[in-house]
Every structure is written in C-alpha cells, then in structure tokens.
Amino acid sequence: MEKKILVLDLDGTLTNKEKKVTPPTRQAIRTIQEQGHIVVLASGRPTPGVLPVAEELEFEKYGGYILSYNGGRIIRCSDGEVLYNQMLPDDIVPEIFAMADELGIGMMTYDSKGILANLHHDKFMELEAFITHLDLHHYETPMAHFNVSVNKCLGTAPAETAQEVMQKFEEKFGHRIHVDRSEPFFIELLPMGVDKASSMERLCEILGLSMDNAIACGDGYNDISMIKAAGFGVAMANAQPLVKEAADYITLSNEEDGVAHVIHKFMLGNEITQQHPSQPTHL
Q: Can you give the pTM of this predicted structure?
C-alpha cells in the first residue's frame, strides 16, 4: 500500500459551521489512519486551538501531525515534539500593533493564557476567540503583557477593506515578514517564508515522502499555496473562488462531509452512499 499524507485545513474544511468534526468524517479519518496513512491538521489557529481536534481524531495514537500558526510550527502528536518553529522578529511585533492602532483595525497575538489584543473591538476578534476556544484579552499595550516571542499576529478588518489594509502591511513590512489573508476579514502576519505549503513540504521531507503522495484540502486564501503544492489539491464547495481555481478537484462542502467524500473516493476506493444536495466537480 502506498502511504498517503492527507493535509486538512480546519475551519470551513474539516469542521462544520458549529466547528465540529461530524461522525462520518471522523470515522473516515480513523479508517485511513488504521491503514497507515498520515493525517495532518494545517491551520492558521494557534496550537492550543488545534490540539482538541487532534485529540478527538486520536493523533497521539495514530501518529498525526499539526501545522499550526499557518505552518509556523510543526508538532508530532505521538510524543508532542516540536519539529519546526518559526517566530516573528521580536522588534516588529510592537510596530505591527502600532500600525493597527493607526489604521483603526483589530490586532491579536497569542500566548499560553490565550489571545492578547489591542483595544479595538469587532465581531471578527470575537470569532477568533470562538474558533480557537481561547480567552480574548484586550490591552492598551498588549506587548507589556507577554515576554515571549510569537509565531504570528492576526489583524481583523471588514472584507471590503481588508485587501487594502493587507497591502499597507505588505508595503511597510513585506521585506521582513510574510503577509497573507486566511478569511476575507483575517490578515495573517507571519515569519518570512512561512505558509502552509512550505511547512507541508518540510514535513514530507522529515517523513521521507514525496509531495506527490500529499492530498491537501482547504477553503481559504491561505490554503491556496498547499493546494497548489500537493500532488492532489482539493477545494471545498464552499471555498473562495480563487481557491477553487487552484484546485485539481472540488469536493462537497464542509456541511456535507466533503473531506469524507475525498477520503472514500481517492483513498479508500469507494463512494459514500448517502445522498448529498450537491455533487463534487472535476476541474
């Protein structure tokens, strides 16, 4: 049996709108893990926000991996070892928060206590707290409340202005860090060279697997790099249009067990028999 590595985004891909993994998808993942395939969770979430899902999928037992912080950290779940860890330059974090205040947008980062944010309040910051199951703490000077290096910062802005805001961060900091978007309203500020594709490639090298053996599934802008880099790239039916353009295959939505459909069709060699409201599409 040729070993495959299945790399899954979480929000909008693996989980449904309630941020849960449904029983059919959970069972499909267990089946391929029992057969020796490797499953990886690749998320913009901080590590504490990914661990509960990894535990639910029994990654410690089956040897799954986590790519958290949009690929900034790689963790082997069998023993908790950190295989790769990239941090933002310490001196740039205060500058990022200062620029966010100037632009009147939300800005967050993470420590062991939860999410540290500026004084801006919006629904997108609350959404991040809901997604990650972490407490959100607002401070006038967030940097005064942590003394460790951070893997990423996350900006929030309405979808209609986020692209312009992202470009401003790119113009000022693009020579020192990687600026990207995950959702239309989330602006990812990451160490230079960090994205899901580069971390997926690094993990494949560690495991001695070819990228041709990788299947990557996602729905957001920050999934495009890994969908393009994988041997087989999959977009969810609910994915952003640009994500669908990058994919080899469009599966069902995250509300219709689209990940389970991919597993059954391309890894187990059988189709799910239940009826779905829409059909997946080849590109």
A: 0.90
